[in-house]
Model the fold of this input.
Amino acid sequence: MKKIYTLLSMLLLTVILTACGTSTSTEKQDSNTQETENTEVTENSEVDTTQAASPEKELEGTSTESDSNNYSITVLEGYELTAEEPNKDLLFNQENDLQSMRIETFSAEEITLEEIQENIMASLQASNESSTVTEITDDNMIPTHDSIKNVSAHQIDTTDGKVSGYVFERDGLLVKLTVFDTAATPALEKFVQMAETIKSK
Done:
């Protein structure tokens, strides 16, 4: 009788140990599966993030060459580039010709950046003798591009709006811009976007 109890006890103990081992093995498998799934989700998220990043878009407009000066510019729809006088072009808003940008370009042999800066500062001050010329610090209102350097950006308030002056160098081309803008529905940011596309022909 004792032998039967002993055998039954051993059999019961074997069944319990086997069940525990299966449970532990199953838990490990479940844990490994979950870790694999989490890794795949993380990797997929990284791929999605990379795919979501898109390169900076070029300005949508018409590439236009100046008739009398050595540069081209991308002109947005609703704006027009025309010759104003020798060595000066005017880019203006067709719906509001009070909004315009005078464009002048030079070579380094003709003039220095410092001389252009002095000239633009004097022109700005002459727009309103009773106001003060200030530096433009808003990045959205300053021409930027990998090849644009030595940028000078200033403006002054007038009775009609703001007059802004820019001087910069791009691939050996010296650029001087005078932007006339109105207080109502200002267009300076669009002029700056177009100015960023100015380059030698």
